Amino acid sequence: MNFIIVINNLEMNKYNYQYRWNMLTFCIWIPMGNYYNYDIPTSLYNSFKSYLSPILSDNQFEFYYGLLFSLTSFVNIFTPFISGKLRDQYGNRIALFVLLFLVSLGQFIFIQGFIHYNLYYIIIGRILISIGIEPCGAIQTSLLSQYFKFDHIALVVGLCELFASFGTISVMYFAPKLAAQYNLIFAIQSGSFAIAMSVVCCIITIVYDINAEYVQQENSIQNVEISKQIIKQENFPFIYWMIIIYNMLLFGSLLTFSNFSVGILTERWYTDNESAEEMAGKMMAIMWGISSFLTPVFGFLIDKYKNRSIFNICASCLGFLGLVQLWYYAPFLAINLLGISYAIMCASVWSSIVYIIDETNLGTGYAYLLSSCNFLLSILPLSISLIKIRTASFFISVMMLAVLIFITVLLGIYIYFLDNQENNILDGKILSTNKSYEQLEQDEI
Description:
Low-confidence stretches: 1-12, 220-233, 430-438
Number of helices: 19
Order of helices and strands: EHHHHHHHHHHHEHHHHHHHEH
Strand content: under 5%
Number of strands: 3
C-alpha cells in the first residue's frame, strides 16, 4: 500500500464556505417531496386495490402491484449509471435539477393513469418517479460532501435521511386520510404540492452553491484541506464491493418490507379492522419517524467515534430481530427495531462511500450502490407477490426477508475484519493543514 495525498481542487474545496449551513437548510428539504411521492403506492395499498377493482381481480392486483415495484427497480439497475455519468461530466447542480424534473413529470403521468384507469400510464409514471428519486440522495451526498467531508458528513447524511423520512411519514399518515375523506385522486395529487416544494428548495440550493464557487474564486489565499488516508491504488477496492453487497441485502430487504408493510400488517394484526389501512399506515409512520430522528443522532456519533463497521453489524442484528418477531409478537417493538436498523445503516454506509471512492469517480461509485439495490428490488417484490398468490399469506415472505438480513450480519462481521486490515478506511483519515502542496510532498519524502 502507498500513502496517497488527495487535495481538493478549487471547484471542490468549499469546506470553509461561510454559508454552508444556510445551504444545507434548504438542501435537506429536497428529499421530503421526493419520498412523499415515492411512498404513495405503499400508503394507499388497500385504496388502490379497491379503486382498480373494476379492471383488476384481487390476484391480478397482487401481481401488478409487485410488478410495479419490480419493473421500476429493474429499470433502475441501469439508470444510476446515466445519472452518475451526468454528475461526473456536468456537475451536481445539473444532475440534481434534471432528476427533480423527472420526478415532477412522473407524478403528472402517474395521476393521469388513475384518472383514466390506464395501467401503462401508472407504470410509466412510477418508473419516471423512481428514476428521479433513486439517484437524488447520492447526488445530494456528493454535493454536500464538498462542504462537510472533513467534519460532519455522517451527520449531514443523517439530516437528509431525516427529511426524506418526513416525506414518508407524511404520506403514510395523510394519504389514507385524504383518500377516505375526499377520494383517491385527491390523495395522489397531494404529491404534486410536495414535489413543488422540493423544486423550490433545489433552486435555492443551486444558487447557494454557485455563490460558494464565486466566493472561492474571489479568495486568492485559501487553506488547503488534505485528506490523507492509506488506500489501495485501484479505483474501487475490494471492501467497497463488500459494502455494495451488504447495502444491497439490508437496504433491499427493509425497503421491500416497507413496500408491502400495509398488506403484511393488515393480514397479521388488523384483519377485521375497518381502519386497517390507516392503522398500518400509522404503524409505518412510527417506523420512519424513529428512523428519521435517529439517523442524524447516529450520524453525529459516527462522525465523533468512527467505527462504521461496528455500527453496520448493529444495524443488521436489529433488522433481523425486528423482522423475526414481527409475526409472533405485537408489532410495535418490531417496528421500532426496524426503524433503528434503517437509521444506523443510512448514517454509516452512505457516508463511508465518500472515503472509499475518489472524488472524480463518486458518481459512478454511488451508481453501483443504487444499481445493486435495484437489482434485488427488481426480484423481491414480484417474488413476494407470487408467493402471496400461491400461499395466500405473507408469512413465508417475511421469513425470507429475515434470512437475507441475517446474511448481512455475517457479512458485516467480515467487513469489520477487512476494515481493520485496511486501517479503518471506512472512516477516512483526515488531516487539516495550512502547509503548501510542495511542503507536503517534501514531508512525504
